[in-house]
Amino acid sequence: MVGEKIKMYRLEKGMNMSELAERAGVAKSYLSTIERDIQKNPSVQFLEKVAPVLDTDIYSLLGISASNGSSGEELDEEWKELVGEAMNSGISKEEFSNFLEFSRWKMSQG
């Protein structure tokens, strides 16, 4: 999903992979693995370099919208900070998803 978003933004900007890699200061081979969905969890550092070149932000690349998807409320700054902290700590989306699943299970046992 992240790779698809990066490719979409890149193509909207009329850039090829080499141009994006050069402007962002990232390896073209790594960018290619992201766009082809071989590497599914790019580093935060990679996203921080690529997002500004694509005139977007990390949240957009990750597909995190302004709403939380359930009540239509806006994602507040505290949630954005928590997401940023999780990303910076090295937690993968899969690990975070597993944590949420475990938490739901534990609450249902309750």
Automatic annotation (TrEMBL):
Superkingdom, natural source: Bacteria
Residue intervals of the HTH cro/C1-type domain: 6-61
Mention any one GO cellular component term assigned to this protein in its UniProt record: cytosol
Does the UniProt entry include the keyword DNA-binding? yes
* One GO MF term: DNA binding
Output the Pfam families linked to this UniProt entry. HTH_3 (PF01381), SinI (PF08671)
Could you tell me the keywords of this UniProt record?
A: DNA-binding
Instruction: Identify the residues that the record assigns to the Sin domain, covering every copy.
Output: 66-104
PANTHER family in the record, alphabetically? HTH-TYPE TRANSCRIPTIONAL REGULATOR, HTH-TYPE TRANSCRIPTIONAL REGULATOR SINR
Q: What is this protein called?
A: DNA-binding anti-repressor SinI
Organism from which the protein derives:
Alkalicoccus halolimnae
Lineage, highest ranks first = Bacteria, Bacillati, Bacillota, Bacilli, Bacillales
**Gene transcribed to yield this protein:** sinI
